Recover the amino acids of this structure.
């Protein structure tokens, strides 16, 4: 791939605690992400995915190693410079949406625009385009509390895109959505990488995203590793029927002494409402 | 961030008002102590103010009426009246002590009034007559209401029963009310029938108080002459000193409570929005902007609390005396200044402490959504 490298990590390590209680959350990780690329970071819970994302997003400093964003080494930057970098170069999409409850959809999207030289006025054309693209035109004056999960995540994506950052970092963006809405959000992020020439780096447990990703990085015990194919154990979500990797799924329950996995918490909630009904659909594998 | 700050506050109006009310209640507590103190202090010099003399003459070495005793021969009043530049004089015999009304001792300024100096009597009488004759007394209407003692009933001054013949208005004070008796009765009780305590001097037009003071001290032996302003200020200071320790302690305790409430309110309002502040930080807002956002919020809540407190204080001022007549309140804008000076920095520091925790937050908080 010849596209420009937009995000680069060189041997980054992050340790928490000291001496005997030291934990290496990220251990000597190096990676390169180019414009227009959609890269997934997958791995078991507690493998250091979110810590790695925080370091790449300039929210957390690595204990060792360097991070290069758009050709600039950010390791020695001051907090104020890092804040400016986050505003200009990085868009965040979170699992919990993280919208501002008192602000309308439009205000939420425009919130980071005040940090740019053009300001909020300069971002109105971009706002209109994003509202249109993400199907939020009708909801632009609504408060987050009145939105569905899918709408909230679309607002969060629009907010991440308002300053036209070259990098989008998404942490489990489909984790709180049902399979249909999750699919919709994934496709939006995929389109952003393709059409807006952004680098999209996504932490996810959702194996369905693999099909649309350019690359999948496997993080385990803080280190990037080659993922072995036998680590997949595909089963069907008894609620929505989607394929789920039993090894990496984080949403699961016990039913009749069996582990039942789901694609999302929404499906787990539905299962818990009518376990007997869905019990018959559990994948016998 | 300013827009976010204000919109976040206004999006939860009940919570905002509750926070501001918590601040307001604590302020009202302090203002109430201060208003009672101020009201009482003013009331303790009300007699001096109402007499509106240009110069007060008293026994040498005496410079107060409150908690003081003064004796001046009565002929000195006539002598002063003859000094050039004196338009008129008035004189009273005076005792600072208890009067038993309705079975309870009321610490009072007991003014012995002569018929020839009727101006020295009560300035407002709502029932009965204003000048007591021998065996008679005029008491404050508030004491009459509180004790049920009416006109025609007796009160006791030292060991002498006196019949209530008038109820005066504006003469009550929790610390020292003004009670009027005849000079003859008081003179008899004090064995000072040929003396006065204080002589009020009224100047001719274009004659200054200072000129009269010099003339009086030159021409009359063993007296002290003070201008009206000096005398009132001297008495007010003495009254303040006597009540200051208790009231200062109450005010300090009230201020500490108010400060703690303000700090807690500001901290909790900001702490509730910690998650959103952390998100703002992740989106690229710097620590300075985070600090400014919380400053706007805490200043807005404190000032709103102060406004509510002012509203409550002035409402209390109008309403409380009609329900609890013995309470005299004086509320002025100057009483709010120390509150602002103390509470605003405390609110700012408390909110900055909350904001500081945001700047030190583990960035995972924005990912975990907790």
């Amino acid at each position: 791939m010849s596209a420009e490298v937009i995000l680069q990590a060189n041997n980054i390590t992050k340790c928490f605690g000291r001496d005997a209680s030291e934990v290496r959350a990220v251990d000597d990780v190096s990676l390169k992400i180019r414009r227009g690329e959609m890269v997934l970071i997958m791995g078991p819970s507690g493998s250091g995915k979110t810590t790695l994302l925080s370091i790449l997003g300039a929210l957390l400093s690595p204990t060792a190693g360097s991070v290069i964003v758009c050709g600039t080494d950010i390791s020695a930057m001051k907090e104020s410079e890092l804040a400016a970098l986050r505003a200009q170069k990085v868009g965040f999409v979170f699992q919990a949406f993280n919208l501002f409850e008192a602000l309308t959809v439009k205000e939420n999207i425009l919130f980071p625009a005040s940090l740019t030289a053009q300001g909020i006025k300069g971002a109105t054309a971009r706002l209109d385009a994003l509202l249109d693209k993400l199907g939020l035109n009708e909801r632009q004056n609504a408060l987050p509390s009145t939105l569905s999960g899918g709408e909230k995540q679309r607002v969060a994506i629009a907010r991440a895109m308002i300053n036209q950052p070259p990098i989008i970092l998404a942490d489990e963006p489909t984790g709180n959505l049902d399979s249909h809405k999750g699919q919709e959000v994934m496709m939006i992020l995929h389109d952003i990488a393709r059409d807006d020439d952004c680098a999209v780096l996504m932490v996810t447990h959702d194996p369905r995203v693999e099909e649309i990703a350019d690359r999948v990085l496997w993080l385990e015990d803080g280190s990037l590793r080659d993922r072995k194919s036998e680590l997949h154990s595909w089963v069907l979500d008894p609620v929505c029927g989607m394929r789920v990797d039993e090894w990496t799924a984080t949403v699961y329950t016990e039913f009749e002494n069996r582990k039942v996995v789901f694609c999302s918490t929404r499906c787990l909630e539905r299962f818990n409402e009518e376990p007997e009904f869905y019990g018959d659909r559990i994948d016998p594998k | 961030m300013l827009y976010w700050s204000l919109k976040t506050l206004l999006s939860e109006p009940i919570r905002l008002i509750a926070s501001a009310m918590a601040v307001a209640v604590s302020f009202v507590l302090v203002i109430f102590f201060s208003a009672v103190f101020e009201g009482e202090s003013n009331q303790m010099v009300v007699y001096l103010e109402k007499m509106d003399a240009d110069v007060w003459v008293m026994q040498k070495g005496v410079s107060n009426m409150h908690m003081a005793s003064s004796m001046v021969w009565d002929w000195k009043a006539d002598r002063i009246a003859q000094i050039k530049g004196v338009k008129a004089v008035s004189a009273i015999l005076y005792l600072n002590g208890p009067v038993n009304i309705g079975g309870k001792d009321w610490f009072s300024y007991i003014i012995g009034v002569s018929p020839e100096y009727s101006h020295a009597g009560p300035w407002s009488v709502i029932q009965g007559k204003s000048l007591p004759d021998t065996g008679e007394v005029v008491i404050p209407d508030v004491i009459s209401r509180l004790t049920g003692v009416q006109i025609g009933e007796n009160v006791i001054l030292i060991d002498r029963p006196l019949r209530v013949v008038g109820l005066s208005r504006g003469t009550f004070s929790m610390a020292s009310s003004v009670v009027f008796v005849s000079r003859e009765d008081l003179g008899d009780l004090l064995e000072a029938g040929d003396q006065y305590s204080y002589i009020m001097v009224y100047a001719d037009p274009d004659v200054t108080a200072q000129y009269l003071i010099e003339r009086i001290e030159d021409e009359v032996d063993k007296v002290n002459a003070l201008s009206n302003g000096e005398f009132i200020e001297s008495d007010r200071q003495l009254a303040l000193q006597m009540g200051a320790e208790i009231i200062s302690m109450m005010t300090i305790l009230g201020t500490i409570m108010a400060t703690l409430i303000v700090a807690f309110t500001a901290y909790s309002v900001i702490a509730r929005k910690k998650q959103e502040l952390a998100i703002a930080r992740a989106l690229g807002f710097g620590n300075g902007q985070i600090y400014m956002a919380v400053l706007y919020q805490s200043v807005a809540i404190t000032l709103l609390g102060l406004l509510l407190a002012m509203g409550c204080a002035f409402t209390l001022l109008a309403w409380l005396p009609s329900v609890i007549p013995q309470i005299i309140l004086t509320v002025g804008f100057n009483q709010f200044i120390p509150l602002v000076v103390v509470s605003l920095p405390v609110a700012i520091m408390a909110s900055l402490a909350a904001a500081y925790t945001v700047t030190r937050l583990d960035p995972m908080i924005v990912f975990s959504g907790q």
